[in-house]
Amino acid sequence: MNINNKNLHHLVELFAQWQPEKEFLFDDEKSFTSQGFLDKTEKVSGMLLKKGIKKGSVVVFRPERSLPSTILFFSLQYLGAIVFLTDSHDSIEDSLKLSSVKVTPDFCLLQENKETPWNPYTLIDKQGTKFSFSLSDDETDKIYFESYVQEKDIKDPAIVIFTTGSTGLKKPVLLSQNNLIWASRLSASIDLYQENDIGIQLLPLYHIFGLFLIISALITHHSLYYPRYKECCFILHSIEKYRITRIDGVPTLYLSVVKKQKEIHADLSSLRIGMIGGGPSSPNQIDEIEKILGLTLIPVYGMTECLGISSGRLDMSKEERQTTIGRVFKENEVILVDEDHNEVQKGQIGQILVKCPTLMMKYYEDEKSTEHILDANGYLHTGDLAYFDEKKLLHLCGRKKDLIVKGGENLSPKKIEEAILSLDYVDNVAVVGKKDDYYGEIPACLIVLAEGFDISAEKIKADLSDKLFKNEIPGVFAFAKQLPLTSNGKIDKNRVKEIL
User: Fold this and answer.
1) Is the pLDDT of residue 151 over 80?
2) What CATH homologous superfamily does 403-499 map to?
3) 0.85 exceeded by the pTM?
4) According to the 3-state scheme, what is the secondary structure of the chain?
């Protein structure tokens, strides 16, 4: 099926034409075939169109991880609106206050009650007029939408996703539909999906990975299940009940599910594959995840500004999948550069610069930040450090800004974290730099011990002596029952620094 230059509406139409009765999205109460999803989204588009939303309208939307929010997102995309996706944990006002730029929306869209996901929703225009509506209504607005349908360029501004931000201010990343569609096409091109797959949607819709999973299901014609709850016990029983074949997410998600599976022993025999990214994980952790969940983990690497930079492959060895972030997609250009922006040799560490079809358009109304990260040659400066090995596999070494400079030497927090995670009695860890009067900065770590262990800092230091150089061993050890996480499930390094 040729999907070149097809926008999201076209892709849903093609799915419905090809397999109208194929289950596309479902939860514990409702299910949509491809045709049913097309009909529903076109009806909702007509309803939103009547309220004034059209091509170019700036709509701030606070989505839930739910079928109704997915329907609303697609409906807004059909109309050509520029949709700002905000964190569902925050109010729209608070989310916009934390933005690095001022956003003046034409409309705000939010759900009033999370316990009743199909109603009511509230749409507020710039004059403050409120309109309440329910997605469970069977209003016949499809014809009204069809009278509006026009060809929309998939490279038009379409989506704004806020990065988590390291300074407290979140940067608004402007993306086109083309960016997301291309990212899903890249994964599909290396056979990471099968048409009979049933995925589980555990990631929020305001996160780039969460949107990616939906569009990947659309492109490859597989089913995607939305569990109502994210508690690990519910997730495991849902995998067993619906014979889920793939689970994708960040390391902290997998580790939580593994811990619960050791207690309840759900039937996970249907699982076959999962993509893992968005945070550090050790070979030991990946090995345990694969053994306990009975799947093959594929490392993936990307960011909101540029999704789909590299990925593991099914034909890679277990060691390669555990220690690298795979191969760069052939459609992408990646170079590694030193501090003077000179390209480094194979085996040497450099900052990752990338040019590819998924590259963001810009930071919304922030030319200064855009120019800082996108150079004149079109390369995105990721801020991530890595090296290529002899097989052209990419090894991630951490964030450039996270480097710990101790007495003039650059230390990698990722390397230290991996060494600590290799200890059997450590469940999780975060390593950051802490100010020091003598060295300027020293490594400090916040450790979560495995259940049943009570280990001293002295014991950990001794066990690290043959895994790290002396200057890499942390000078500060602290312990916690769990690590602080961002709303996206990543370790919150800023909060770790505050704790330490």
Assistant:
1) no
2) ANL, C-terminal domain (3.30.300.30)
3) yes
4) CCCCCCCHHHHHHHHHHHCCCCEEEECCCCEEEHHHHHHHHHHHHHHHHHCCCCCCCEEEEECCCCHHHHHHHHHHHHHCCEEEECCCCCCHHHHHHCECCCCCCCEEEEECCCCCCCCCEEEEECCCCEEEECCCCCCCCHHHHHCCCCCCCCCCEEEEEECCCCCCCECEEEEEHHHHHHHHHHHHHCCCCCCCCEEECCCCCCCHHHHHHHHHHHHHCCEEECCCCCCHHHHHHHHHHHCCCEECECHHHHHHHHHHHHHHCCCCCCCCEEEECCCCCCHHHHHHHHHHHCCEEEEEEEECCEEEEEECCCCCCHHHHHHCCCEECCCCEEEEECCCCCECCCCCCEEEEEECCCECCEECCCHHHHHHHECCCCCEEEEEEEEECCCCCEEEEEEHHHCEEECCEEECHHHHHHHHHCCCCEEEEEEEEEEECCCEEEEEEEEEECCCCCCCHHHHHHHHCCCCCHHHCCCEEEECCCCCECCCCCECHHHHHHHC
